[in-house]
Design goal:
By secondary structure, this protein is of the alpha/beta class. The chain is 37% helix and 18% strand. The strands form 4 sheets. It has a 4-stranded mixed sheet. Strands 1-2-3 form a 3-stranded mixed sheet. Helix 2 packs across helix 10 (257-264). The longest helix is centred in the first third of the chain and has 19 residues, at 23-41. It starts with 22 loop residues before the first helix and ends with a helix. The model is unreliable at 1-20 (pLDDT under 50).
């Protein structure tokens, strides 16, 4: 295993200089944020709801094993939960929850014991289970469909969540109605496609805007076991680990979403396999590993995100060695006043 240092998934940067922070650059940076914020204030979350879409909602009476199986079988990373007894939204079940459960049970019990245990727990007791596992609380973040994208963005950025539920109220019964889910990816994609003044997006680099997390990164090699990487996810509160060769060059990445593929293949009981075997399970249409440099413009980064559906970019130097990670939340944060 190759661990270069402990690094969380915050969006702080540690560049040695201020990124060309003279008065002119600072003014342009603020002008860009004002442009993006104005755009987000002109659109509501309702504008993001597709005409036709599939929404998976999990009843809190479901057993945890069946709920997680629903995520796996449908290839989704999160789904809202609904308490039918109280007629209210009850939070989101996410891939991060699966990762925390896998790490806890793999460290303390056998795979059979884990399945037996989870097979007796309903989602309504899931919040207490997460706290017992010393994990973060259930994501209960939500917004009204009529809230502006600016309000939704600020709500998401105030947490470490990338997705929230859009919840309305039934006018007759007062019950919660889960309308859709909205992610940072969809907000950025919508803005990149529809904002008018794209010229300003081309005038700023990642370095100028201080976008990304830099410093010592948690990394792994192709022979690192999957369970060791899962421990990195949990212990260091990260969602992706770059995979390097012996020279420190980026070969691939392993993300929390890859755990869904392992679960689909029935391999959650065999997590001592090297990450190279897990990566080989990815489908042919996998988005792949995408890198960028600090000299890339915000426009090019948004364009890559829009075209490839990636959730993050690995920032590399001229030798393709990793120097940082740009998460979608880092990009959105730079565009909010």
């Amino acid at each position: 295993m190759d661990i270069l240092g402990a690094q969380g998934n915050t969006s702080n940067t540690s560049n040695s200089s201020d990124g060309g922070g003279n008065a002119s650059v600072i003014a342009k940076r603020r002008e860009l944020a004002q442009l993006a914020s104005f755009f987000l204030k002109q659109h509501s979350a309702y504008d993001m709801i597709p005409v036709s879409f599939r929404l998976i909602v999990l009843d809190t009476k479901l057993l945890v094993t069946k709920a997680l199986s629903t995520l796996v079988q449908n290839g989704v990373e999160s789904a809202p939960m609904y308490d039918s007894a109280l007629s209210c939204y009850a939070g989101m079940l996410t891939t991060t929850d699966l990762v925390n459960l896998v790490q806890y049970y793999y460290s303390n019990f056998s795979y059979t014991e884990a399945i037996d245990d989870l097979g007796q727990v309903q989602l309504e007791n899931y919040k207490e289970m997460l706290l017992r596992l010393k994990s973060r609380q259930t994501n209960t973040l939500c917004a009204n469909p009529l809230d502006t994208l600016y309000e939704v963005s600020r709500r998401l950025l105030a947490t470490d969540y990338s997705t929230l539920a859009l919840v309305d109220e039934d006018s007759e019964t007062g019950s919660d109605v889960i309308v859709s889910v909205l992610s940072i990816y969809r907000i950025l994609n919508f803005m990149a496609a529809n904002i008018d003044d794209k010229k300003k997006l081309k005038q700023h680099t990642l370095y100028d805007l201080h976008i990304g997390t830099y410093g010592d990164l948690i990394t792994a090699k192709m022979d690192t076991s999957v369970i060791d990487i899962i421990r990195m996810f949990v212990d260091d509160n990260i969602s992706v680990v770059p995979i390097l060769d012996d020279a420190g060059v980026v070969l691939n990445v392993f993300a929390e979403s890859d755990i869904i593929l392992l679960a689909r293949e029935g391999l959650l009981g065999e997590l001592t396999i090297p990450v190279s075997e897990a990566i080989a399970l990815r489908p042919d249409d996998y988005a792949g590993v995408h890198t960028c440099t600090q000299a890339d413009t915000l426009y090019s980064v948004l364009d890559t995100i829009r075209k490839t559906h990636v959730q993050r970019l690995i920032v590399v130097d001229d030798d393709i060695r990793p120097v940082g990670v740009v998460a979608l939340s880092d990009v959105l944060r730079a565009l909010i006043v």
